[in-house]
Design brief:
The complex is a heterodimer. By secondary structure, chain A is an alpha+beta fold. Chain A has seven helices and ten strands. In chain A, strands 1-5-6-10-9-8-7 form a seven-stranded mixed sheet, with helices on both faces. Chain A has a three-stranded antiparallel sheet with strand order 2-4-3. Chain A is globular. Chain B has five domains: 2-71, Phenylalanyl-tRNA Synthetase, Chain B, domain 1, CATH 3.30.56.10; 93-291, Phenylalanyl-tRNA Synthetase, Chain B, domain 3, CATH 3.50.40; 300-367, Phenylalanyl-tRNA Synthetase, Chain B, domain 1 (2-Layer Sandwich), CATH 3.30.56; 383-526, BirA Bifunctional Protein, domain 2 (2-Layer Sandwich), CATH 3.30.930; 553-635, Ferrodoxin-fold anticodon-binding domain (Alpha-Beta Plaits, 2-Layer Sandwich), CATH 3.30.70.380. Helix content of chain B is 32%, strand content 25%. Chain B has 19 helices and 29 strands. In chain B, the strands form eight sheets. A five-stranded mixed sheet of chain B has the order 4-7-10-11-12, with no helix packed on it. A five-stranded mixed sheet of chain B has the order 18-22-23-25-24. The mean pLDDT of chain B is 94. The chains are: A alpha+beta, B alpha+beta. Chains A and B meet through helix 1, strand 1, strand 3, strand 5 and helix 4 of A and helix 2, helix 7, helix 10, helix 12 and helix 13 of B.
Chain lengths: 239, 636
């Protein structure tokens, strides 16, 4: 109960630094892109059909006076930007802020942080993705973590999968010993590779995306993600 | 969609595995099962049908087909196979399609029906999946939709005016602006030219909102004896937009907007007409169809090595052939290459990767075994992340806390077209406004947090009219108001520390009393490119504790103690005496005078249940005073 001699790093920054540390050891570079993004990169290049519901005003923030941009709805456009400026082999992560036009509650924010991952080479498969994710979750949560896939769908991947993880049973760890749904992922759709200047007949690879807030909920037991964005030191100073 | 276990069983001779087994099979080979619910004599399987499968999987036939493939058991009946044999063409009804929203329209006339309650088996089917039984005609149309995925609509045929030539006419056309329709469920709609409507082709009256909802005026009543049964195909996007516009997310609209194949429509029409005649005692007089319901699917090719290369598995050509056979595809195999022609109802099999997914999910994604990543050198170091981390570490070392605030403001430069709220309708062009608010908001929590000053910073994106940049903002406040002589030195010390760590001058872009903001972007231009990340410490492994929303109350105590008395010992005495409402104990100072030592502490009390009143806290303090006196310390 003594006064802390130092200040406090926000858990999002702490997690992002640690995520970068873990991925940098296996050669994943840290990429970035604008938060106010071209519609072309946010939707078109990611194989999201012109009439897709996610483009509706109810889901996406549009801007006055610029019909070419939106507030990015995911970190996936950074995949496109990164592939346009790099040639395979590609290993990258992109943690960043994203925006959804939705009402907020304890588990939803109109702005939150996502972690994107991308690995492209001649023969990168779902098996590599499983290995990378097991490596990451094991390091991040500590202990042995297993990963499993279930069929899913996202326009920018094919096949698409839902990823569950299970931390090996540990005494006193409520998260351990059960399957937890953590992210969406899959093999990058050939249309996305093509739009990003990569030949899909030669190269292939995986992409994944997850909420960093969700990692915080799982790791720290945070019960309301809005606390991460309201500047309340009663929250921040616990970290 | 909700599926009835008993209904699914009607597609098989073999007994299906238990609902729990089906749940597991569906989840790992098709779409996620949300829940299993027991209802009278049946089990409902609620499936979150994936968007790419919704065109054909939102029906009992669709899921039965999936189960047949997953479990490798044959369907005893497949109502979407075989040629559709239409009965007599109708001469008494004429259909005109006058909108691109509708490319196929089938109508059947069933005469001599008796509207009444549905047979028990039909009621049971519909009620199991949460549908209310209405009457035999409406129930029959719903049954066919949940069986095959094809929405049907039953009109009282006599609502359509008899033309001079003795023919009734159905015209599907765009609505005119301002046209009205009252729906079967009594919603009064005002239509626009974006809506497609089913109308009486003789007098022009609007009878239904195409693909979404029927009209009240043309619906089946107890007096109805002749049915005009509609099975049509409406365009997906127009239907979705119409359903959203009128806030009518009906089961029919959902199926069209997911891209139901028009090739299913004739099967739906025939099944509906037959079922109505069967349970309502009528006769199918004839059927008329307008437009084209045929669907030509293009062949898609996949090789075994492509499957293995993408999924990272080792499946054999024989296994692939077996899976293709289970799907019942039209397959041409040539060595390890398979060319399939998708069945008419499947609009989701267009490219090689789609077939890889089909094989992968049926074979089982649990057969994907992980390949651990090998360490690899890093090709690039991100300078912004690197320097942001250095700034962060430096500021935290000086007692600053980091915050993340909203990217939105009530008034700024760049306007959002569709904001959530008027106070969030602009993008922030600086961090200052948010940080000054955060600073003020945290002033009351200083005692609770055991801090003298609120010192916060944010590293975040700000937006100009077209550009965006990362800024760093620092805000400091010691008292309840800004006090230059206390706050400015804290800010100056922070800037000096940053300049020393970065080895360059920090140029403020925005300043205010106790506040300073600079551009990280501008700073990066002056800094050398990093060659490696600093080794980061693992983030703390703490568990977040929910905090009380009620205010805290502070009390100070000072006492004389014997020289050399351990502060820790005194603290434990205070902690013990103050009880469980004490949330923070801060040692304020120690000084020694004439052989006596004075210790001062601040005790902060707070409840999780209520706002504490002064008397309650005083009571706690009395206990503290007694404990202190009991130790022979003199309270000052």
């Amino acid at each position: 109960m003594q006064q802390q001699p130092t200040g406090h790093t926000h858990p999002l920054s702490g997690m992002i630094a640690e995520i970068n540390q873990i991925f940098s050891e296996i050669g994943f570079t840290f990429a970035e892109g604008p938060e106010r993004e071209l519609i072309k990169h946010n939707f078109d290049d990611l194989n999201v059909p012109k009439d897709h519901p996610s483009r509706d005003m109810q889901d996406t923030f549009y801007l006055d006076g610029d019909d070419t941009k939106v507030m990015r709805t995911h970190t996936s456009p950074v995949q496109v930007r990164h592939m346009l400026s790099h040639q395979p082999p590609i290993r990258m992560i992109c943690p960043g802020k994203v925006f959804r036009n939705e009402a907020t509650d304890a588990t939803h924010e109109a702005q939150f942080f996502q972690l994107e991952g991308l690995m492209i080479d001649r023969d990168v498969s779902l098996a590599h993705m499983k290995g990378v994710l097991e490596y990451f979750f094991s390091r991040f949560f500590g202990g042995e973590v297993q990963v499993r896939f279930r069929p899913s769908f996202f326009p920018f991947v094919e096949p698409g999968v839902e990823v569950d993880m299970m931390i090996a049973p540990q005494a006193g760890n409520k998260l351990s010993g059960r399957w937890i749904e953590v992210m969406g992922a899959g093999m990058v759709h050939p249309n996305v590779l093509r739009a990003s200047g990569i030949n899909p007949d030669v190269y292939q690879g995986f992409a994944f995306g997850m909420g960093i807030d969700r990692l915080g909920v799982l790791r720290y037991g945070i019960d309301d993600i809005r606390l991460m964005y309201n500047g309340d030191l009663r929250f921040v100073n616990q970290f | 969609m909700k599926f009835s276990y008993n209904w699914l069983q009607t597609f098989f001779d073999e007994t299906l595995p238990t609902p729990a087994v089906l749940e597991e099979k569906i989840t790992f080979h098709s779409s996620e099962v949300e829940e299993l619910v027991s209802v009278a004599g049946d089990t409902v399987i609620d499936v979150k049908v994936l968007p790419d499968k919704s065109a054909w999987l939102m029906s009992h036939r669709g899921l039965a087909k999936e189960l047949s493939v997953i479990l490798d058991i044959p369907l005893k009946r497949d109502p979407l196979r075989g040629e559709v044999a239409y009965p007599e063409p109708l001469s008494s009804v004429r259909v005109m399609l006058d909108t691109p929203t509708c490319d196929f329209y089938g109508a059947a006339i069933i005469e001599g029906v008796t509207v009444g309650p549905s047979p028990e088996w039909l009621k049971a089917r519909l009620e199991a999946i949460g549908q209310r039984s209405i009457n035999n005609i409406v129930d029959a149309t719903n049954y066919v939709m949940f069986e095959l995925g094809q929405p049907l609509h039953a009109f009282d045929a006599t609502t359509f005016t008899l033309g001079a030539d003795g023919v009734r006419a159905v015209t599907v056309r765009p609505a005119t602006d301002g046209e009205k329709l009252t729906t079967l469920s009594h919603e009064d709609l005002t239509l626009t030219t974006d809506d497609a409507v089913i109308t009486d082709g003789v007098n022009g009256a609007v009878l239904a909102l195409a693909g979404i909802k029927g009209g009240l005026h043309s619906g089946v009543t107890e007096a109805t004896t002749t049915i005009l049964l509609e099975a049509a195909h409406f365009e997906r996007v127009a239907t979705r937009l119409g359903s959203r516009r009128h806030k009518l997310p009906t089961d029919a609209a959902k199926r069209y907007e997911n891209g139901l194949s028009r090739s299913v429509t004739p099967y739906g029409l025939m099944a509906g007409a037959k079922l109505i005649a069967e349970i309502a005692g009528g006769t199918v007089i004839g059927i008329t169809t307008t437009g084209d319901s045929s669907m030509v699917r293009e062949p898609v090719t996949v090789t075994v090595s492509e499957i293995n290369r993408v999924l990272g598995i080792t499946i054999t050509a024989a296994d692939v052939a077996a899976i293709m056979h289970r799907f019942g595809y039209e397959v041409v195999q040539s060595g390890e290459s398979f060319t399939i022609t998708p069945p008419h109802e499947r609009e989701d099999l267009l490219i090689t990767q789609d077939l890889i997914e089909e094989v992968g999910r049926i074979h089982g994604l649990n057969n994907v075994h992980s390949i651990p990543p090998a360490p690899a050198p890093l090709q690039e170091i991100n300078a912004r992340l690197y320097y942001a981390e250095r700034i962060r570490t430096t500021l935290v070392g000086l007692g600053f806390s980091e915050v993340y605030t909203s990217s939105f403001r009530d008034k700024d430069i760049s306007h959002i077209k569709n904001a959530l709220a008027s106070d969030k309708s602009y993008l922030r062009s600086r961090l200052q406004d948010n940080l000054l608010e955060v600073r003020q908001q945290n002033i009351p929590y200083r005692d609770l947090l055991g801090i003298k000053a609120v010192q916060v910073f944010e590293i975040g994106t700000v937006f100009g009219t077209t550009d965006e940049a990362f800024h760093v903002g620092l805000a400091v406040q010691t008292g309840t108001d800004y006090k230059a002589k206390l706050d400015d030195p804290l800010l100056a010390a922070a800037v000096a520390a940053l300049e020393s760590v970065l080895g360059t001058k920090v140029t403020p872009m925005h300043t205010a009393p106790g506040y300073l903001e600079f551009s990280l972007e501008a700073l990066l231009a002056q800094l050398p490119l990093p060659t490696a990340y600093d080794v980061t410490v693992k983030a703390p492994h703490v568990l977040y504790k929910p905090f009380s929303q009620y205010p805290s109350v502070s009390r100070d105590i000072a006492m004389w103690v014997g020289e050399g008395t351990d502060v820790g010992v005194v603290e434990s005495i205070l902690l013990e005496a103050a009880g469980n409402l004490l949330v923070r104990l801060t040692h304020l100072d120690t000084f020694t005078k004439e052989g006596r030592t004075s210790l001062a502490f601040r005790l902060v009390f707070q409840s999780h249940e209520k706002t504490l009143d002064g008397a309650e806290v005083d009571e706690r303090m009395q206990a503290v005073y007694s404990a202190v006196s009991g130790q022979g310390f003199a309270v000052r």
